[in-house]
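Schema walkthrough. Field components (list of strings):
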Amino acid sequence: MTLVEALFGLLGVVALGSGLLVVTTRQLVHAALWLVVCLGAIAGCYLLLSAELVAWVQVLIYVGAVVVLLLFGLMLTRAPIGVSADLDAPPMQRVAAAVVALGLAGIVVVSSVDGFRGERIELSSDDVGGSSAAAGEAVFRSWVLPFEVLSVLLLAALVGAIVLSRREIGTEDRTGSRTALPPRDGDGR
Amino acid sequence: MPLLMPVVLAGLLFSIGAYGVLARRNAILVLMSVELMLNAVNINLVAFDVWLRDELLAGQVFTLFVITIAAAEVGLGLAIVLLVFRQRETSSLDQLTELHEPDPEADAATDAAPEPVQERAS
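Field assembly_structure (string):
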């Protein structure tokens, strides 16, 4: 076993362990922080697989942006700090979920072991792609049209998020001044 | 490196994410589990790209695209969760049953009860 394989195994164990903690911990904020560990370990796996640019994009966007967004979501929904008991579904549903997940894992692992036993990724040769130069050239040469379409999709998603999360700022009456809408709570407060 | 290492890692991570989606009740935790599943797919894309030595680097470029789409998905998802929280003061998925098909037995029980549970008007 080479050093790369040992490191990959270690990072894989870290990713799996922290992933398990994400879905089982009873503290909301800890779940987001374990997600950071998991995503960071996966970024390390990308580096070991010689996908340099993907690794740094993973660190920037996932660890940097997505987790911060999730933490803001937790904060804005007034998530309790500390242990909260009502994060998980009832035990019956959890058992069913575990059965589904174990079955899925069994099928995927058995079929991929059956299909790819003995195949090896050669990482030692020099022409391994994935450096920033190679990946950037691929994006802006072969994949430039999907890339631009994706930017439009991202813009649409951001505009949608703004429209969804905008507060009702009131209706304009004839004089142009704004009057606040009454609160929309149904139970009379 | 054996190809099986990243592929098995991705399969296990995907199952963990699936468990999270099915077993969690908080909407934001479900979003986190979806992120785990997307990452498992990304590992597969990168591993097969490196294994096949693709000239166009399709796997890695697709991984970048998936990461972007995941960021957009989290942004929209959190906006929806915040909107639901603002209207109903809960982010628990179990309580969002407005579109649930009416359950005849539960309706009978509610009718039989002396004081029926008042649904929140919204």
